[in-house]
Amino acid sequence: MKTKTICFFILLFLWVLNVSASELREIELNDGSIISGEVISLDNGVYTLKSQSMGILKIDDSKIREIRKKRGSSVPLNSFAGTDIQSMTQSLMGNENIMKMIMGLQNDPEIQKILQSPEIMEAVNAGDITALMSEPEFRKLLENPKIQGITEQMTK
Q1: Where is mean pLDDT largest: 30-34, 83-87, 114-118, 119-123?
Q2: More confident of the two residues 80 and 15
Q3: Does residue 46 sit in the same domain as residue 82?
Q4: Has this prediction a pTM greater than 0.85?
Q5: Is-contact 43 29, C-beta < 8 A?
Q6: Range of the domain at 151
Q7: Cα 26 vs. chain centroid, distance in angstroms?
Q8: 104 in the same domain as 53
Q9: First CA to last CA across the chain, in angstroms?
């Protein structure tokens, strides 16, 4: 069941990335200050952010308390049933290796095909893992070596 949940979350994460590319985030620093901007990348523990007011910033992940969607966002991350999305997101955002693996899936043809499936995306949006398991493409995705690698990393 854990593999299904992780795969569901990976799909959800990629879907949110596709839907909200260049969407603003609130980056709360350890000192309590908040930066509004777009997360461009994470490399060697350093986030690259693009802020309208401050331009391009590089911030060490140890200085970041939390990264969250800007208030009023159109994609309610907390609304997905059965999964603690915020907790998993924070866990993922703090793991550079997993983030690189997931970002590497963005252009994968198999992932893109799944992201274009209305039935699968409806199930992802509803948080319905049972409906996802009824989809052959999703079951095939569970066998994808890249997905299995991410699952292994997340369960360590």
Answers
A1: 30-34
A2: 15
A3: no
A4: no
A5: no
A6: 1-18+77-156
A7: 15
A8: no
A9: 16
Residue matched to tokens 């986030």: 47
Whether residue 58 is found in the same domain as residue 8: no
Instruction: Specify whether 57 is located in the same domain as 88.
Output: no
The total number of structural domains that make up the chain: 2
Per residue, what are the HEC states of the chain? Answer: CHHHHHHHHHHHHHHHHHHCCCCCEEEEECCCCEEEEEEEEEECCEEEEEECCCEEEEEEHHHEEEEEECCCCCCCHHHCCCCCHHHHHHHHHCCHHHHHHHHHCCCCHHHHHHHCCHHHHHHHHHCCHHHHHCCHHHHHHHCCHHHHHHHHHHCC
Residue type at position 2: K
Same structural domain for residues 82 and 145? Answer: yes
